[in-house]
Amino acid sequence: MYEVHKTMTVAGAHHLNLNYESRCSSLHGHNWRITVVCRVKDDGLDVNGMVVDFTDIKKIVNKFDHANLNDFVVQPTAENIAKYLYEEIPHCARIEVEETEGNKVVYEPDRD
Ligand SMILES: [Zn+2]
To answer: Among candidates 78, 51, 64, which has minimal Cα distance to 9?
Structure first.
Protein backbone atom coordinates (compact mmCIF):
# COMPACT_ATOMS: atom_id res chain seq x y z
CA MET A 1 0.00 0.00 0.00
CA TYR A 2 1.12 3.52 -0.76
CA GLU A 3 -0.20 6.68 0.88
CA VAL A 4 0.21 10.31 -0.11
CA HIS A 5 -0.38 12.97 2.54
CA LYS A 6 -0.75 16.61 1.56
CA THR A 7 -1.57 19.50 3.91
CA MET A 8 -2.59 22.95 2.71
CA THR A 9 -4.10 26.10 4.18
CA VAL A 10 -6.75 28.01 2.25
CA ALA A 11 -8.54 31.22 3.21
CA GLY A 12 -12.24 30.69 2.61
CA ALA A 13 -15.50 32.32 3.68
CA HIS A 14 -18.76 30.59 4.59
CA HIS A 15 -22.00 30.99 6.43
CA LEU A 16 -24.21 28.27 7.88
CA ASN A 17 -27.98 27.89 8.03
CA LEU A 18 -28.52 26.53 11.53
CA ASN A 19 -31.63 25.75 13.54
CA TYR A 20 -30.24 27.67 16.54
CA GLU A 21 -28.81 31.17 17.10
CA SER A 22 -25.16 31.30 16.13
CA ARG A 23 -22.55 33.77 14.91
CA CYS A 24 -21.82 31.20 12.19
CA SER A 25 -25.00 32.28 10.39
CA SER A 26 -23.23 35.47 9.29
CA LEU A 27 -20.68 35.38 6.50
CA HIS A 28 -17.18 34.99 8.01
CA GLY A 29 -13.84 33.45 7.12
CA HIS A 30 -11.35 30.85 8.31
CA ASN A 31 -7.87 29.79 7.36
CA TRP A 32 -8.87 26.19 6.71
CA ARG A 33 -6.06 23.69 7.23
CA ILE A 34 -6.85 20.70 5.05
CA THR A 35 -5.01 17.40 5.00
CA VAL A 36 -5.68 14.96 2.17
CA VAL A 37 -4.68 11.30 2.34
CA CYS A 38 -4.77 9.26 -0.87
CA ARG A 39 -4.11 5.52 -0.93
CA VAL A 40 -3.57 2.77 -3.49
CA LYS A 41 -2.65 -0.90 -3.22
CA ASP A 42 0.91 -2.17 -3.86
CA ASP A 43 0.19 -2.52 -7.58
CA GLY A 44 -1.89 0.66 -7.81
CA LEU A 45 0.68 3.28 -8.83
CA ASP A 46 -0.08 5.07 -12.10
CA VAL A 47 2.15 4.96 -15.21
CA ASN A 48 4.22 7.79 -13.72
CA GLY A 49 4.87 5.85 -10.51
CA MET A 50 2.54 8.00 -8.41
CA VAL A 51 -0.52 7.51 -6.22
CA VAL A 52 -1.74 10.91 -7.42
CA ASP A 53 0.19 14.02 -8.42
CA PHE A 54 0.45 16.47 -5.49
CA THR A 55 -0.35 19.23 -7.99
CA ASP A 56 -3.71 17.66 -8.83
CA ILE A 57 -4.69 17.63 -5.14
CA LYS A 58 -3.58 21.26 -4.80
CA LYS A 59 -5.70 22.34 -7.79
CA ILE A 60 -8.86 20.82 -6.28
CA VAL A 61 -8.34 22.20 -2.75
CA ASN A 62 -7.27 25.62 -4.04
CA LYS A 63 -10.73 26.15 -5.54
CA PHE A 64 -11.64 27.14 -1.97
CA ASP A 65 -8.88 29.76 -1.59
CA HIS A 66 -10.28 33.31 -1.38
CA ALA A 67 -13.68 31.90 -2.28
CA ASN A 68 -17.10 31.60 -0.67
CA LEU A 69 -17.45 27.91 0.20
CA ASN A 70 -21.24 28.22 -0.03
CA ASP A 71 -20.69 28.41 -3.82
CA PHE A 72 -19.40 24.79 -3.74
CA VAL A 73 -21.12 23.10 -0.79
CA VAL A 74 -24.77 23.69 0.18
CA GLN A 75 -24.18 23.73 3.95
CA PRO A 76 -20.38 24.13 4.21
CA THR A 77 -19.71 22.76 7.66
CA ALA A 78 -16.25 21.26 8.10
CA GLU A 79 -17.99 17.85 7.85
CA ASN A 80 -19.62 18.63 4.49
CA ILE A 81 -16.45 20.23 3.14
CA ALA A 82 -14.52 17.07 4.04
CA LYS A 83 -17.05 14.87 2.21
CA TYR A 84 -17.05 17.15 -0.84
CA LEU A 85 -13.26 16.97 -1.12
CA TYR A 86 -13.29 13.21 -0.54
CA GLU A 87 -15.56 12.83 -3.56
CA GLU A 88 -13.53 15.20 -5.77
CA ILE A 89 -10.02 13.82 -5.18
CA PRO A 90 -8.90 10.60 -6.89
CA HIS A 91 -7.91 7.69 -4.59
CA CYS A 92 -8.85 9.74 -1.53
CA ALA A 93 -8.97 7.69 1.69
CA ARG A 94 -9.24 10.39 4.37
CA ILE A 95 -9.78 14.13 4.66
CA GLU A 96 -9.03 16.30 7.68
CA VAL A 97 -10.53 19.79 7.84
CA GLU A 98 -9.33 22.06 10.64
CA GLU A 99 -11.54 25.14 10.82
CA THR A 100 -9.66 26.81 13.65
CA GLU A 101 -6.77 25.52 15.72
CA GLY A 102 -8.04 22.64 17.84
CA ASN A 103 -11.33 22.21 15.92
CA LYS A 104 -10.88 19.48 13.36
CA VAL A 105 -13.19 17.13 11.47
CA VAL A 106 -11.98 13.88 9.91
CA TYR A 107 -13.89 12.06 7.21
CA GLU A 108 -13.26 8.47 6.16
CA PRO A 109 -15.86 6.22 4.60
CA ASP A 110 -17.56 3.77 6.96
CA ARG A 111 -15.82 0.43 7.35
CA ASP A 112 -18.16 -2.53 7.63
ZN1 LIG B 1 -17.11 29.19 10.25
So the answer is: 64
Domain ranges of the chain: 2-107
For residue 30, the number of C-alpha atoms closer than 13 Å in the C-beta half-sphere is 20
What is the tens place of the pLDDT at every residue in 35-71?
999 999 999 999 999 999 999 999 999 999 999 999 9
- Among the listed residues 3, 5, 66, 108, the single catalytic one is 66
Look up 96 and say whether it is catalytic: no
Q: What is the pTM of this model?
A: 0.94
Please indicate whether residue 98 is annotated as part of the active site.
no
38 is catalytic: no
> What's the CATH superfamily of 2-107?
6-pyruvoyl tetrahydropterin synthase/QueD (3.30.479.10)
Longest alpha-carbon distance in the chain: 52
Count the Cβ atoms, other than its own, within 10 Å of residue 2: 16
